[in-house]
Amino acid sequence: MYNFLKGIFDDFNFHARVIPALIIALPVYIFLILKNIISLEFGDTILINSSIFILLIIVFYKVIRNLGKKYEKKMYDELGAKPTTIILRYSDDTIDEITKTRYHKRLNEKVKELNLPTKRDDEVKEDDIKYESAINWLRKYANSNRNKEPRVYQELKDYNFWRNLYGGKYIILFSCLVCIIIENITLMRYEINQIIANPFPTSVPLIAMIVIFIVTCTIVNKKVVQNKAFDYANTLLEVCDSLEEDKI
Question: How many domains does the chain have?
């Protein structure tokens, strides 16, 4: 299925939207497959479950980018600006001041009438608009020179993957909770001592959903998305060092 989906979508959408959609749909698929294994019902049920899985991927593919963009806007509000703007500010210490000044000068050389400040004392709040303009130009340059700047493209895919996955995080948690409730209702048919004496394979679907719920809460979080956003921003700004070699 992985190769089938990869053949349909372009590289960026596959990594940024299809894989997160697949991960979001996975808990339901795992739950249904485990239930079939326990009940020894194969054949048509496996086909039906796989069809449901593909349908869920298609649905989540359609909505996941909107969920990711919605969180992205919230993240920018929480940070106070886009990571690229923050890094370009002299008040931020993500990169050293000498490197930052070099980036400012390089961008001023390449973008007409930009006039980024080249000293800490010259920076004012209104310069954020200039920083965003500079980044828009730099992003377009990096996208147009993807072969020359492959790390920017990789970091962009990585960031969009985590952003969209985090956007769909609560769908995963909700799916797990629904499956847990269904399985608890199912297990009510058994005596407690029967479940304790023979936890496998009866309790496997319940355990699997609990594990997925915990792993999702632990791994898919705001900090990861923010770190990936700053990794992309830093990699994009490093392109400034290669601008000197180009005749633009």
Answer: 2
Which residue in 90, 121, 83 sits closest to 104, CA to CA?
90
Cα 60 to Cα 168: distance, rounded to the nearest angstrom: 8
Q: Is residue 231 part of a domain?
A: no
Q: What is the dihedral of CA 10, 154, 64, 167, to 10 degrees?
A: 170
Residues 6+ apart with CB under 8 A from 135: 82, 84, 85, 88, 236
Provide the residue range defining the domain that includes 73: 2-80+168-203
Cα separation of 114 and 125, whole Å?
15
Residues 38-59 pLDDT 10s: 555 555 566 777 788 888 888 8
Taking the C-alpha atoms of residue 214 and residue 15, their distance in angstroms, rounded to an integer, is 24
Domain presence at residue 172? yes
**Which of the 8 DSSP states describes residue 125?**
T
Predicted structure pTM score: 0.85
Query: Is 209 inside a domain boundary?
Result: no
